[in-house]
TrEMBL record:
GO cellular component: endomembrane system
Protein location: Endomembrane system
Membrane topology: Multi-pass membrane protein
Top-rank taxon: Bacteria
Pfam families documented for this protein: DUF1232 (PF06803)
Alphabetized UniProt keyword annotations: Membrane, Transmembrane, Transmembrane helix
Domain DUF1232: 52-87
Name of protein: DUF1232 domain-containing protein
Length: 117
């Protein structure tokens, strides 16, 4: 059931990335370092430091040689890594898309704001 939910989340991110008017894939990928910096510095409240830490643990799990289910087990050993990868990809692309929208709102707000005299 959890695998189906992760696959559905990945499909939703794909639909969001390909929807007209939303940030494209490369805009989202380029925004990831800015997103991380903004979350760490407290300039972006759309994502908590806890979720950022959880994503960091996901990256560490993917590159770590220690595995919950060893990779030598057929199918099952790779499925847990793939599930973490799908979750991480979906979360990062989704959050970075919201962050790009946030940046656009801030820029638009500063341009549309009346001049202070």
């Amino acid at each position: 059931m959890a695998k189906a939910a992760r696959a559905a989340a990945a499909w939703k991110v794909y639909r969001d990335v390909s929807k007209p008017g939303t940030p494209g894939l490369m805009a989202r990928v380029r925004a990831i370092p800015r997103l991380i910096g903004a979350v760490i510095n407290g300039r972006y409240e759309g994502m908590t430091k806890g979720k950022l830490a959880l994503m960091g643990l996901g990256v560490a799990y993917l590159i770590s040689p220690i595995d919950v289910l060893p990779d030598f087990l057929p199918v099952i050993g790779v499925a847990d890594d793939f599930g973490v990868f799908l979750w991480l990809l979906g979360s990062l692309l989704g959050e970075s898309g919201r962050y790009v929208d946030h940046e656009r709102t801030i820029v638009r707000g500063s341009v549309d704001a009346p001049a202070v005299e």
